[in-house]
Amino acid sequence: MPSSLTRLKLISLATVLLALALVLLSSCASGPPAQPASVKDQAAQEQSFTAALAQTQHPPAEPGQTGIRTIQAAVTSVSDGDTVHVNLNGRDERVRMIGINCPEISHPDLGIKEKPYGREAKAYTERQLTGKKVWLEFDAQERDKYCRLLAYVWLASPTSGSEEEVRAKMFNARLLLDGYAQVMTVPPNVKYADMFVKFQREAREQNKGLWGVAPVPAPGSGAQKQNSGTHT
Question: Quick one: how far is CA 113 from the chain centroid?
Answer without folding.
Answer: 33
